[in-house]
Amino acid sequence: MGAEDDCLPNSTLCTDHEGFLFWDRVHPSQRSAQLTAATFYDGMSHFTTPFNFKQLVTKKMTD
At the top level of its lineage, which domain of life is listed (predicted)? Predict the structure, then answer.
């Protein structure tokens, strides 16, 4: 996942937070959170069964 050690304020190990899923051993990167949110919102059905959030909102508005 790209984490070798903790990402402390003076650390040189984590200069590219966007290039990895985790920016240290336990904390997901911002990019990881963006990908997760995008998948829940408008992702494919094999990730968001029975429907994604966008489909839920659309269905709720038309009912």
Answer: Eukaryota
Q: What is the per-residue pLDDT across 4-50, written as a single tens digit (0 to 9) for each? A: 666 666 666 666 667 777 776 777 888 888 999 999 999 888 888 88
**CA dist., res. 34 & res. 21, Å (int):** 10
What are residue 22's DSSP bridge partners? 28
Neighbours of 29 (CB within 10 A): 22
Domain ranges of the chain: 17-62
pTM (2 d.p.): 0.61
